[in-house]
Amino acid sequence: MAGLLMRRAGAADAGILLVGANTWEGIKEMHARNAVFRAVENGSALFRQVSRGRANAVDHQGRVLATTDYFTSEQQAMVAYVPRECVATVYSRIGDTFAWLCAAGLAGLASLVLRRRSGVH
């Protein structure tokens, strides 16, 4: 569901993605990185606030503008000047089309190999 919402935001040229999250300490870094990845692939800045975990703000290239960690910081407020302009990316324009074409090509090649092995031409 979250991936679909991110794709819609990218297709709509959203300049800033505002994301709320609540994670536990063991996965806080992974979740923060995944959110940054989604923002970069859509050409958007990101402001990710958390009730627990790592909060971060990045620009459309993934450069960190601000960050704070619920588990290690006494200061829970985060302030960042986040750019509002969206940058067009290939992913924001075509979405998963390339991935689906690759999957279809692989299925076609697998079918061709199986036909040749069974002697059907």
TrEMBL record:
Domain of life: Bacteria
Gene Ontology cellular-component terms listed: membrane
MF (Gene Ontology): N-acyltransferase activity
Listed InterPro entries: Apolipo_AcylTrfase, C-N_Hydrolase_sf
One of the GO biological process terms: lipoprotein biosynthetic process
Keyword annotations of the record: Acyltransferase, Lipoprotein, Transferase
Name of this protein: Apolipoprotein N-acyltransferase
Organism annotation: Nocardiopsis sinuspersici
Top-level taxonomy: Bacteria, Bacillati, Actinomycetota, Actinomycetes, Streptosporangiales
